Amino acid sequence: MPESPAQPDRVVELETLVMHLQQDLATLNGVVIDQQKQLDSLTKRITKIDVRVARLGDDDESRDPLDERPPHY
Questions:
Q1: What is the largest CA-CA distance in the chain?
Q2: CA-to-CA distance for 8 and 19, rounded, in angstroms?
Q3: Whole-number mean pLDDT of the chain?
Q4: What is the pTM assigned to this prediction?
Q5: Positive or negative torsion for Cα 23, 24, 28, 31
């Protein structure tokens, strides 16, 4: 199949497109990695908060409001 003058231009265009796509893919990969790190960090923080809230809920200290003195006494 004889090469037309436009064929080498098309190959260069395709190579340029692939190069840009590879750069975009690398950028997106970096963003996804950063987001995963943030998700991991937030998940750890939420777990710690859940544990603290559970501990607060475990306080079975029964207080009778009638037995407590108001702050103005």
A1: 103
A2: 16
A3: 87
A4: 0.61
A5: positive
